[in-house]
Amino acid sequence: DKATAWSALRSGTLPASSALSQASAGPFMKLSAVRRLALAGSLSASVALGLQLQHGRDARPFGASVAFAQPRAAGVAMLASPAEGRARLIDGKAIAAAVRRDIKASSDELKAAHGTTPGLAVVLVGNRTDSATYVRMKKKAAAEVGFYSVDRNFDETVTQEQLLATVEELNADPRIHGILVQLPLPRHIDEAAVLESIAVAKDVDGFSAENIGRMCLRGGEPPLALPCTPAGCVELLQRSEIQVAGKEVVVLGRSNIVGMPVAHLLQSMDATVTVCHSRTADLPAQVRRADIVVAAIGRAELVKADWIKPGAVVIDVGVNSKPAPEDK
Question: Is the peptide bond before 323 cis (omega within 30 degrees of 0)?
């Protein structure tokens, strides 16, 4: 049931995508595959994905391939062992592909058993490079797993009334089982009002106050959905068999999209979590003591190699653009 799956996710015995699937059983069955697709999109959109420094003598990643052995009962993917003294990459693309394969199987089963095609709607405002990248990858993944998908694109000049009307239209559309409003929105838009207008049963991104509240509270009903990028971070750690309980975790960034929810998720998994931000004193010292670092601060190359202690795990959530060298 939902409570059992939520408990398994927190204890680290079940990957996030599997927990979402089980937590969405019964009346929430239609949403299961949609939520997991959004999670897979978050996994494959991470730029550096994950970097585990085994001994610290060489912080440069090398071209390690990921070997998927026979999955264990919990569905954890096995990561190939790196050479002694070298870093190893957590291959987010490979993990996302595995999640999508699971989703397609669930989607096919749903169609065969109930004649229902999962439907995902994405609302995009403006022309931010990172937001457009996320949306493009999610649409591609939706097509890959056989979803019905629609998108609603607006210029940055869109009014709040127009956005709210669009959400209400999608709430009423029986073909749509999940609605994703890509954040951040322009400053003249009240994000909270837009997110709260999404029907809780269609809140695929897990950003409604009800879902966030359930995620943060100890005990009680589990959330109907988890924020996708934070859930993707957990998926990377769990499928790579990285222990979270008892570890020192430093989260760089406190946004509603990644920093805040990923900190709560990792704390619920018994990590000791420190959230750092623009006003944090001596940021390098904070990062140096971390066993796990989640970088979601929106600045390229902020974290330096000598900030990372030997054996630490780094999950880089940022999507940043840099000008290409003139000679390329």
Answer: no
Which structure tokens are listed for 5? Answer: 């799956």
Spot the catalytic one: 91, 102, 138, 203. Answer: 138
Exposure on the CB side of residue 307, measured as CA atoms within 13 A? 18
Under DSSP, the state recorded for 327 is T
Structural contact between residues 145 and 104, judged by C-beta atoms closer than 8 angstroms: yes
CA distances from 25 to 52, 74, 136, 287 (A): 34, 17, 28, 39
Percentage of the chain lying above the pLDDT 90 cut:
48
Which candidate in 102, 139, 182, 247 is catalytic?
182
Q: 52 an active-site residue?
A: no
Is 138 among the residues known to form the active site?
yes
> What is the Cα–Cα distance from 297 to 311, expressed in whole angstroms?
22
Quote the pLDDT of residue 205: 86
- CA angle (184, 307, 271) in 5-degree steps: 65
Active site residue: 91, 102, 203, 205, which one?
205
More confident residue, 60 or 266: 266
Per-residue pLDDT tens over the stretch 131-153:
888 888 888 889 999 999 999 99
For range 52-69, the mean pLDDT: 28
Q: How many CA atoms lie within 13 A of 327 on its CB side?
A: 0
Phi, psi of 154 (to 5 degrees): -135, 150
| Residue 255: per-residue pLDDT | 92
* Residue with the two structure tokens 């009346």: 27
195-to-205, 222, 225, 244, 257 alpha-carbon distances in Å: 10, 19, 14, 30, 12
Task: Quote the strand ranges of the chain, DSSP E.
Answer: 49-53, 87-90, 119-125, 148-154, 178-181, 248-252, 272-276, 292-295, 313-316
pLDDT of residue 47: 27
Lookup: tokens for 277: 């931000």
> How far from 304 is each of 86, 95, 282, CA to CA, in Å?
17, 26, 13
Of how many residues is the chain composed?
Answer: 328
205 is catalytic: yes
